[in-house]
Amino acid sequence: xxxxxxxxxxxxxxxxxxAEIDAIAAEFPGLCSLETLPLLxxxxxxxRAEARGQHPTRVLRITAPGGAAEKPAILLMRSHHAREWxxxxxxxxxxxxxxxxxxxxxxxxxxxxxxxxxxxxxxIIVPESNPDGARLSFFDAGRRMWRKNLRQPDxxxxxxxxxxxxxxxxxxxxxxxxxxxxxxxxxPRPLSEPEARNIAxxxxxQRNIVFAIDSHSHGQAIFRPSPGxxxxxxxxPVSAADDxxxxxxxxxxxxxxxxxxxxxxxxxxxxxxxxxTDEFLFFVHRVFAFDLECGxxxxxxxxxxxxxxxxVAEATKALGLCAAGATGLDVSALLxxxxxxxxxxxxxxxxxxxARSAPWEIEPLAEEHWRRFRARLAPLAGAAGWATDPASSxxxxxxxxxGQVRLTREGHKGGAKRCRE
Length: 421
Hints:
By secondary structure, this protein is of the alpha/beta class. The chain has 2 domains: 14-340, Aminopeptidase; 348-409, no CATH class. Helices cover 31% and strands 13% of the residues. It has 10 helices and 11 strands. The chain has helices at 14-27, 86-100, 109-120, 131-139, 194-205, 240-261, 277-285, 302-323, 331-340, 348-351; strands spanning 32-36, 58-62, 73-78, 122-126, 209-216, 221-223, 266-269, 288-293, 360-362, 375-377, 405-409. An 8-stranded mixed β-sheet has the order 1-2-4-3-5-8-6-7, with helices on both faces. Strand 6, helix 6 (240-261) and strand 7 form a beta-alpha-beta unit. The longest helix is centred in the middle third of the chain and has 22 residues, at 240-261. It is globular, with a radius of gyration of 21 Å.
């Protein structure tokens, strides 16, 4: 049977994306598992009644049963930017291609390649990184160009944070804004937003992730940390060896992307330097991460959106083949480098029941402690949903040399030169 693709044909709203991800997991239980990350969103209370409330960040894992105890993994995540509708199609198309074409024993060369890849590699998909903002953009009149999450504003300020400026690496530098009313507002402090913290938690837990795509739109470009810098920085500390790996991966992605409609994405630079996912994943977690800007608009005609989604699927599969060792990279060395990193666990956030249903405020850390911290969860006396018995709080004694983060519950109400989104 021939390799199957073009599973998506039109835009999908966030509820349809959730349903499609549920369906894939149910149809392919031998290949898929579905889980949620620790923290819920701030909450959507807009026009679509069935979409209201706080929402989880979910993870769909796809890999063949058996094989190595720890397979190298590819992370594909939908952009944190709500208005970039293409990327919902991209994650669904990718998930469908991976599951529908896993057919051991099939003679089709593309099917054989994908099946062999999934026997050696795990694909980790985050189908929605900003569930509240996506709902506002899709369902609420006059809000389709909304970009940020739905963090409630301080008095007199504007709502929302750009979660792709909220990561610790280079937080607050050029390419972001300190103004709450700006589209690139970086938030009050690093990892202030549950959506960003969920991705940070995933990266810390999953030491097998070696490559990552944060799928954005638009511009037909592949951005990543670069020794040559980009629009907002003249250079970045990327070694010659790591830059060679990045160029190897870019070439493989572009070779498959071009097979969809002949496009060759621009490569080799970073256009922001301000708390983005790719810089965070690379410099903190040693994951070779990309900001892939697909398509030529945030919400192009559906036929164009489908082609862009197919390009993201091709790029993801290309990285999968690289992680499977099919292109000559020493993947075992990349995994070993990931395992050597040390982090202080923050697993208690995921284990505490109330942590799953509340927004959080993070007291700032000194910059030298951004990469390593422990957490202390402390219930507010009398806050709704909390037990007031002091014995119910979970406390973790931090190492004074490493600093600490204290998490507390807070009250809440229920686009010149192209710049990377």
